[in-house]
Prior knowledge:
The chain is an alpha+beta fold. It has helices at about 15-30, 55-65, 65-70, 70-75, and strands at about 1-10, 35-45, 45-55, 80-85.
Amino acid sequence: MILLIVKVKSPLSEEELLRRAKEREPQFKAFPGLVQKYYVKRGEGLYSGIYIWESMGALQAYKESDLAKSIPKAYEMSEPPEIEVMDLLFQLRD
Length: 94
């Protein structure tokens, strides 16, 4: 499995950002190969999406999708997100 962390800065209030994230939730739930996604707050105006993908192929398909490309506009980002990709070696719990 593959771990993807997308770190974003957004001028939106937390309430507005969460509203927009909830609107987009069905699209993420339907995306093939996405095992889980966590939405986290790192500080004022700093958020991350933490994704668990079945495979690198699923992640690549996502990166090329309109859904991935829509993130900057959806959250009114003024600069590109920071992106980290890692291989998951094992998980503690099933």
